[in-house]
Amino acid sequence: MIEMDLRARRGDFTLELACRIDSTWTVVFGPSGSGKTSLLRLIAGLDVPHRGRIEVDGEALTECAQRIHLAPGRRRIGYATQHPALFPHLSVAANIGYGLAALPREERNTRVAKMLDLVGAAGLAGRAPRDLSGGEAQRVALARALAPQPRLVLLDEPLSALDGPTRDQLLDRLKSRLAAQGTQTILVTHDAADALATEAEVVLLDRGRLTGQGPAAAILAAERRRLLDRLSQMTG
């Protein structure tokens, strides 16, 4: 469970919201510039709010009044974005296993193989990052974020280079696996279909404010009608 009550400024933009996220699979949706990425960076600990607090499972990750700000590496959070920053000198398998140094080699290799299989990249283990397509690199970066089995996974449009059907299949597989192991997931997307297809809980942002929260079918009803109308015009 995530609880937040915060205010964060970056230039002329201000993100201000108070909410609690209980669902194991939540989609943050909103127009460009609404604060979606800013929210994930605050939860991950990459940015610090001007004021407020962020708690995960009752643990204070950020508490400005008490000057608490847990370092990103100590938050047990996996974070994957649409820009996969893989280590260029390491193979795909070594990239995924980078955060598993504490595990015995056999267990580490097994975990890496499972993560590759989960994201549909089982044949890429020996490749170098320079030899990957954009979609392949995104899959590998996602596998690396999931490998340490974090308690919370933050996904900022991590599959943008994949086509729609492939992305839908992978998201469905991820939702099932992560929910089964009790991992809470927050997915940022610009595509309402990602929320509707996975029957997600939705956090709706607009210009740095929370404008809706609840089941995708209810919160994104207007967006769904807009998409259907557009499709009707294209096929009519």
How does this model look, in words?
By secondary structure, the protein is α/β, with parallel strands linked by helices. It has two domains: 1-76 and 154-236, Rossmann fold (3-Layer(aba) Sandwich); 80-149, no CATH class. It has helices at 36-44, 92-96, 105-118, 134-146, 164-180, 192-197, 216-219, 221-235; strands at 2-10, 13-21, 25-29, 51-56, 59-63, 68-69, 77-81, 152-156, 184-189, 201-206, 209-215.
Secondary-structure topology with pairs:
Layout: E1 2-10, E2 13-21, E3 25-29, H1 36-44, E4 51-56, E5 59-63, E6 68-69, E7 77-81, H2 92-96, H3 105-118, H4 134-146, E8 152-156, H5 164-180, E9 184-189, H6 192-197, E10 201-206, E11 209-215, H7 216-219, H8 221-235
Parallel strand pairs: 3-9, 3-10, 7-8, 8-9
Antiparallel strand pairs: 1-2, 1-4, 4-5, 5-6, 10-11
Helix pairs in contact: 3-4
